[in-house]
């Protein structure tokens, strides 16, 4: 009888990485909302900065995961891990910000 290969752990890791990326994005959104409450005059600046950052982050993570895994099954997981990491770094940056930076 042929050996049955279970790919389920890979799927679990991919979903875990995706869940971590979503969670990191939610934490970042909360940090931005809190900062806007503290610095209401910076709202438009924060929104524009986050929109640009999101596009750049997604493009960079896609490029890196493509380069590392090029269509292999680990590519989505690598992209999610990158997105989570970048969101965590941006959250720290937002939390440290004390005034509008133009």
Structure description:
- The protein is an all-alpha fold.
- Helices cover 78% and strands 0% of the residues.
- It has a domain at 26-95.
- The chain has helices spanning 8-38, 43-69, 75-96.
- Helix 1 (8-38) runs parallel beside helix 3 and helix 2 packs antiparallel against helix 3.
- Residues 3-7 have low confidence and may be disordered.
What about the largest sheet?
Answer: none
What are the segments in which pLDDT stays under 50 over at least 5 consecutive residues? 3-7
Q: H/E element string?
A: HHH
How many distinct beta strands? 0
Mean pLDDT level:
89
The coarse silhouette is elongated
The number of helical elements comes to 3
Q: Which bin fits the share of residues in helices? A: over 70%
What structural class do you assign from the helix and strand content?
A: mainly alpha
